[in-house]
Give the backbone structure.
Amino acid sequence: DADVTQTPRNRITKTGKRIMLECSQTKGHDRMYWYRQDPGLGLRLIYYSFDVKDINKGEISDGYSVSRQAQAKFSLSLESAIPNQTALYFCATRGGDLNTEAFFGQGTRLTVV
Amino acid sequence: AQSVTQPDIHITVSEGASLELRCNYSYGATPYLFWYVQSPGQGLQLLLKYFSGDTLVQGIKGFEAEFKRSQSSFNLRKPSVHWSDAAEYFCAVGGIRRNNDMRFGAGTRLTVKP
């Protein structure tokens, strides 16, 4: 089983709908992240969480919200999806020490029509 | 805040040729530096990382990278490219303080010609 699991892997939704992307991890890491990937823009940080009670906005948090339900679970919500939120979304985890790398899920491809 | 620039959006090399992918960072101190690879339809896999010490670091799949403080660079190299190296490559910088988290470059897409 993957260390970082994202569900769903693919989703098509309509403009204005609420959608939740889920992420769970088995690495026991405290830090969890949500990134979105767009062609030519790389990965941009949406939100990150250092632990269950510590959630921080990233570069592009507008239009998104998150919930850290447990150490192992970090979900991303789009309250009212719009077409420019069509992207590939990645969840990642990282250990407590800053000199550690991030581990990524397989990604969720979201299309808003 | 830290940032990272990958000047080359797309690079094409012939199989067997050498490769260098450029990465420049901006940060007030020496950051933590990473290279990731993303194969089509896949997530990101770590190739190598630099924290301190020897400025030439070895990674998986025959890749290496050299940290040059004077140039704020962390370029990725491979002496002989294989067709399976075709992918997108991302450089990332991580800050040394708690709230300076990881930032990624825009990526460089590598095409390998037969």
